């Protein structure tokens, strides 16, 4: 019956199918599930995977999207395309000491294309691409699981046969609706994992295409093996995990193509069994293909190493506290606990969080910690599965369990802390590929239960219910990823001890102007992590704005004491010291900030304000000029230069600076206003009037704009227009300084003129 779903026309193919099917047990015999033609199975998987994440299509840029997309200069047209190959995922130079060394140029290239086609930072296009990618991957999983669960078998016409249509459909559905994938799909930065998975699967399917079966045995195409290596390289250029497909291809070759029994092979090697000569490994080309994969992988890693440099990634203790522990025992036990948490997220993806660092998972420091049970459970299950995978007499069972464990463990290795320190504790996005192995093991376990169960339909209904629950969970979690407020608040119940969660909730509230609520969350973040310098800096900023200067100074001083190279905290400390009129200390703080961040236009701007307060006019002008050189669109620095030159009587110089500024920022109404004032004093009334009117058109509710235009008309002798704009200014701001007096003078003058006229 299964054969009829594929081809009902060729009797020779039918005989070949039955011959191959008899070689080993068929997983589908024991699986109580739907049987659909291949194209229908793929349509169902695509639709359900779309249903899970469709509501994320109009979400905002959230969490890491700001740094990877909005603040990433590599997305803009002015950045040469070639720079993408020398920058990390966040737009920093790979050679920089602060780089995380995450080398994903092809992912950044897709972001850049999104940005260019949309004409700006519009998140809808970014989200739609992510959803399409996940649907595509889920459809490909139908073919991948049909090979992993049913084996690689071809008809005599070279067509690959799906020997496990029911099992592959179930596994693909499990993958498509797994809630742990929400971060990759609903979070735009997850594009890296999606692209990596796409080319990862294409590499595997390409490797499978290298084989054909005929009467004499297997033949293979070197071209397709090389294509597989190239696709693996592309996967790695999307995200680092992609390189692991080469190892998995080798495992698949050994187990499925060559049907090697590892335990038996090791025994023969140990005892130098002469039957090894008849193993046929060289004849079937396994060693040659593995050599190609190894050489390809080594070449890819070498090129990446040359581009990336030899320096390790720059991470801090709060990113991954276990990796900074002095004791090898503490490091090992906590790494294993992290593995058990990842396994639990695959088994029960109900408690999901955008960030698991900063105290969310306290370190295990002794064997008396009850969480040791999780480690024991993990290794009990793993050892049991490994023993069955290696020692079972059932070759079909050995193959499926080994492939399941391989796809579960090997793609996870780059995130395991075994080879290098990673910048996270637990990250849901890194489980996207390992979940393939989970789906294999789940489906195989379901087939074993179905084989033993008397009421198979009840078991099938239970699995169907699980799929429905996962679809619902995906939809709910996707809605939480639509905005930062929902995302951050959703984490409070999952990781209440995570200082970063409280920090992000506070930052979100501060951005919306709710400073009182933001202070509460910032204080909690500092309480949970007394060394959280970013929380101290932001809290200090809010307290500074609320004129609580002494507490702000304490927090910012502590922040720079903990992290002496924290440039932003040094600058904010300087602002507070300036407000407290401790000018020498403020100047020193500003220069310390500039020392740690050479290109810091905002700090030069604040330094200029300090010098202006001290009447060091030349120093102030130089500082503001530095700010505009580093950031030509720094409107405040340009404005302050114009105003200072105006106030000191240097009208010609003020006019020149104003015109230079407007050439760079032609639509800035504050610059128009400042230059209009200068031109009015220089008696260039017509040009001044034009700029005032342009500024008022851009910002019609600015009382000072109307007031100063009225002064211009007053000087110019156009008294009626002066009266009109004085009245508009006073209507907008009845307490506008000077306007009331000027308006009174104008009215007296108009009354005198009327008397003379009368």
TrEMBL record:
Presence of the UniProt keyword Repeat in the record: yes
Pathway noted in the entry: Protein modification; protein glycosylation
Subcellular location: Endoplasmic reticulum; Membrane
Single GO biological process annotation from the record: endoplasmic reticulum unfolded protein response
Gene3D superfamilies: Tetratricopeptide repeat domain
Record keywords: Endoplasmic reticulum, Membrane, Repeat, TPR repeat, Transferase, Transmembrane, Transmembrane helix
InterPro entries per UniProt: O-mannosyl-transferase_TMTC, TMTC_DUF1736, TPR-like_helical_dom_sf, TPR_rpt
Enzyme class of the recorded protein, top EC level: transferase
SMART domains xrefs: TPR
Pfam families for the chain: TMTC_DUF1736, TPR_11, TPR_16
TPR repeats: 499-532, 533-566, 601-634, 703-736
Location of the DUF1736 domain: 311-383
Similarity section: Belongs to the TMTC family.
UniProt protein name: dolichyl-phosphate-mannose--protein mannosyltransferase
Native species: Elachura formosa (spotted wren-babbler)
Organism lineage: Eukaryota, Metazoa, Chordata, Craniata, Vertebrata
């Amino acid at each position: 019956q299964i054969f009829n779903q594929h081809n009902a026309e060729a009797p020779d193919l039918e005989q070949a199918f039955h011959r191959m099917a008899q070689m080993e047990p068929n997983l589908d015999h024991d699986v109580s599930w739907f049987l659909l033609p291949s194209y229908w199975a793929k349509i169902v998987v695509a639709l359900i995977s779309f249903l899970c994440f469709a509501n994320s299509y109009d979400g905002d840029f959230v969490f890491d999207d700001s740094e990877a997309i909005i603040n990433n200069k590599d997305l803009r047209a002015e950045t040469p395309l070639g720079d993408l190959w020398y920058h990390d995922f966040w737009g920093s130079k790979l050679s920089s000491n602060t780089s995380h060394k995450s080398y994903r140029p092809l992912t950044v290239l897709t972001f850049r294309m999104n940005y260019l086609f949309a004409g700006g930072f519009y998140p809808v296009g970014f989200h739609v691409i992510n959803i399409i990618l996940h649907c595509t991957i889920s459809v490909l999983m139908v073919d991948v699981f049909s090979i992993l669960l049913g084996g690689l078998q071809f008809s005599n016409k070279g067509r690959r046969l799906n020997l496990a249509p029911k099992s592959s459909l179930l596994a693909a559905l499990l993958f498509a609706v797994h809630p742990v994938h929400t971060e990759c799909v609903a979070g735009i930065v997850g594009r890296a994992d999606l692209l990596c998975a796409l080319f990862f699967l294409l590499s595997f399917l390409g490797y499978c295409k290298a084989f054909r079966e005929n009467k004499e045995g297997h033949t293979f195409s070197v071209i397709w093996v090389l294509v597989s290596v190239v696709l693996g390289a592309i996967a790695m250029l999307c995200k680092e995990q992609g390189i692991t497909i080469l190892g998995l291809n080798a495992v698949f070759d050994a187990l499925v193509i060559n049907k090697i029994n590892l335990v038996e092979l090791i025994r023969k090697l140990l005892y130098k069994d002469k039957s090894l000569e008849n193993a046929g490994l060289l004849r079937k080309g396994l060693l040659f293909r593995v050599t190609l994969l190894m050489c390809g992988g080594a070449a890819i890693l070498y090129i990446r190493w040359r581009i990336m440099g030899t320096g390790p990634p720059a991470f801090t203790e709060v990113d991954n506290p276990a990796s900074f522990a002095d004791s090898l025992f503490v490091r090992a036990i906590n790494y294993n606990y992290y593995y058990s948490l990842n396994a639990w997220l695959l088994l029960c993806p109900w408690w999901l969080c955008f960030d698991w660092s900063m105290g969310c998972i306290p370190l295990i420091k002794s064997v008396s910690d009850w969480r040791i049970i999780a480690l024991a459970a993990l290794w009990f299950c793993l050892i049991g599965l490994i023993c069955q995978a290696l020692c079972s007499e059932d070759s079909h069972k050995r193959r499926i369990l080994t492939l399941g464990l391989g796809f579960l463990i090997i793609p996870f290795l780059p995130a395991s802390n075994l080879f290098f320190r990673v910048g996270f504790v637990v990250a849901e996005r890194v489980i996207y590929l390992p979940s393939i192995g989970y789906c294999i093991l789940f489906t195989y376990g379901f087939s074993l239960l179905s084989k033993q169960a008397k009421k198979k339909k009840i078991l099938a209904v239970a699995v169907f219910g699980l799929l429905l629950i996962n679809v619902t969970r995906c939809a709910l979690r996707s809605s939480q990823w639509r905005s930062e407020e929902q995302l951050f608040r959703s984490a409070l119940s999952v990781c209440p001890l995570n200082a970063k969660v409280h920090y992000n909730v506070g930052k979100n509230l501060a951005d919306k102007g709710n400073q009182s609520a933001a202070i509460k969350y910032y204080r909690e973040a500092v309480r949970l992590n007394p060394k959280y310098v970013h929380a101290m800096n932001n809290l200090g900023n809010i307290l500074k704005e609320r004129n609580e200067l002494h507490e702000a100074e304490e927090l910012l001083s502590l922040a720079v004491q903990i992290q002496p190279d924290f440039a932003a905290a040094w600058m904010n400390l300087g602002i507070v010291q300036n407000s407290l009129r401790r000018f020498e200390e403020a100047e020193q703080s500003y220069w310390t900030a500039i020392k740690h961040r050479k290109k810091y236009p905002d700090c030069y701007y604040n330094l200029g304000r300090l010098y202006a307060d001290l009447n060091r006019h030349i120093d102030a002008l130089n500082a503001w000029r530095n700010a505009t050189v580093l950031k030509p669109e720094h409107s405040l620095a340009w404005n302050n230069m114009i105003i200072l030159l105006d106030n000191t009587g240097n009208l010609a110089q003020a006019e020149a600076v104003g015109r230079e500024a407007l050439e760079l920022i032609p639509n800035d109404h504050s610059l128009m206003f400042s230059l209009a004032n200068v031109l009015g004093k220089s008696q260039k009334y017509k040009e001044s009037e034009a700029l005032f009117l342009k500024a008022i058109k851009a910002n019609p509710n600015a009382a000072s704009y109307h007031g100063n235009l009225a002064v211009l008309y007053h000087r110019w002798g156009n008294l009626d227009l002066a009266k009109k704009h004085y009245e508009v200014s006073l209507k907008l701001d009845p307490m506008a300084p000077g306007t009331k007096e000027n308006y009174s003078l104008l009215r007296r003058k108009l009354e005198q003129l009327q008397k003379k006229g009368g």
